[in-house]
Design a protein that fits this description.
Elements lengths: L11 E5 L2 E3 L1 E8 L2 E8 L4 E9 L1 E8 L6 H4 L5 E7 L4 E9 L11 E8 L2 E4 L1
Antiparallel strand pairs: 1-2, 1-7, 3-6, 4-5, 6-9, 7-8, 8-9, 8-10
Protein name: Phage tail protein
Pfam families: Tail_tube
Length: about 120
């Protein structure tokens, strides 16, 4: 019997609106948060500004028969889910595709990146 309690990286699964994506790798995510920028003057550091930062879920897929590349460009208001080997599930709702789908025909891969204001990480 194998023990996977120390497995923290490696494979995973990705879906978009319940459609299983042929995940190649590079799954990444950012929970919706803020960005901060230091504000300085000629005399000292005055403080910082804070702006909202959208959540993000991205991954690399394989272009295979049955994967509709052109239809992906219309993906808005979708639910994106990543299930990772470390046991975390990352779910984004109301997300939109931010990348132009560009297929590398040498290895049939393409990158997808989604952004939205509701990304939740179940840990």
């Amino acid at each position: 019997m194998s023990d996977t309690t120390r497995r923290i990286a490696g494979g995973g699964y990705a879906t978009v609106d319940g459609l299983a994506m042929p995940l190649v790798g590079n799954p990444k995510y950012r929970a919706a948060t803020v960005t901060r920028e230091s504000l300085t003057g000629m005399d000292s550091v005055h403080g910082y500004s804070e702006k909202p930062q959208p959540g993000m879920i991205g991954f690399q897929c394989r272009d295979m028969l049955g994967v509709g590349i052109t239809a992906m460009q219309d993906w808005t208001n979708v639910t994106v889910e990543l299930r990772l080997n470390n046991g975390k599930t990352v779910t984004g709702t109301g997300m939109w595709l931010t990348t132009a789908v560009e297929v590398n025909s040498a290895d049939a891969t393409f990158d997808l990146a989604f952004e939205g204001d509701n990304v939740v990480v179940e840990e």
